[in-house]
Design brief:
Elements (H helix, E strand, L loop, with lengths): L3 H10 L1 H6 L22 H12 L25 H4 L3 H12 L6 E6 L5 E4 H6 L3 E8 L5 E10 H7 L8 E6 L4 E5 H4 L5 E6 L2 E2 L9 E3 L12 E7 L17
Parallel strand pairs: 1-10
Antiparallel strand pairs: 1-2, 3-4, 4-7, 5-6, 5-10, 7-8, 7-9
The structure holds the ligand Nc1nc2c(c(=O)[nH]1)N[C@H]1C(S)=C(S)[C@@H](COP(=O)(O)O)O[C@H]1N2 and molybdenum atom (MO).
The site of ligand MTE has 19 residues, from loops.
Length: 248
Amino acid sequence: MEKPQLITRRRALITGLASLSGLMLPGCSQPLPPTYGNLLRMGDALTYLSHRTLLPGQSLAKEYDSRDISSFPATGTTNPADRGFVPELREVYGRLQKDAFQDWRLSVEGRVARPGRFALADLQRLPARKQITRHTCEEGWTAIAEWTGVPLSVVLQKAGILPSARFVNFYAYDGFSDSIDLYDAFHPQTILAYGMNGRSLPVPHGAPVRLRVETQIGYKSLKYLQRIVVTDEFVDPGDTGWAWYVGI
Ligand SMILES: Nc1nc2c(c(=O)[nH]1)N[C@H]1C(S)=C(S)[C@@H](COP(=O)(O)O)O[C@H]1N2
Ligand SMILES: [Mo]
């Protein structure tokens, strides 16, 4: 339950939005984004509210045909071993890359009953999903690729996500971090991708495993995953300069 005090503040600020906040979708108890109240992040509020209240629950992003697969530029960090922001991680990633990610482990921790570390082969043994989707970068380009991976929901359930959990935070080998809410985390197209266009995920595109969040803008699809932390409270990654919620 929300604190009544918070509702009063919201009403005072935006009366129209407050009345809409009563309109909740099943399974969606958060019609305002967790960044709400931060003036610099006001952009999140409209997209989040409209997506969470007006769009049908868990509607799928458009999937394409293999004929539609396009060239796909690699952007941002293209190798954490030489461009990462955290020196120690740069070194670790370099070593992992040298042995073809044999020693890479994805740590799943936080509000889960069974925290653990998944090797690439562990993830590949879980039920897989393949999807051909369009990536939309905030810089204005789009590209279509086929992604293969395990639904994040499968991994979260395997780790025994606790009922109080509300956010999933991701930490990458180049120092990037970001989070999504459970609504996006359990979306059927939200996957931990280890394959791209039928081959293992190349280093420039986030090897060995990247997130694909098809319901949001491209920068939410974090590359070079290192750690997943499930939390009850919102942890603002805050330092990217980008909006936390950008639904498409
Ligand atoms: N760890 C990490 N993830 C990241 C980025 C990055 O620099 N580091 N860039 C983001 C941006 S802005 C985009 S458009 C896509 C780019 O993915 P690509 O290199 O496969 O095209 O990854 C996103 N995920
Ligand atoms: Mo981007």
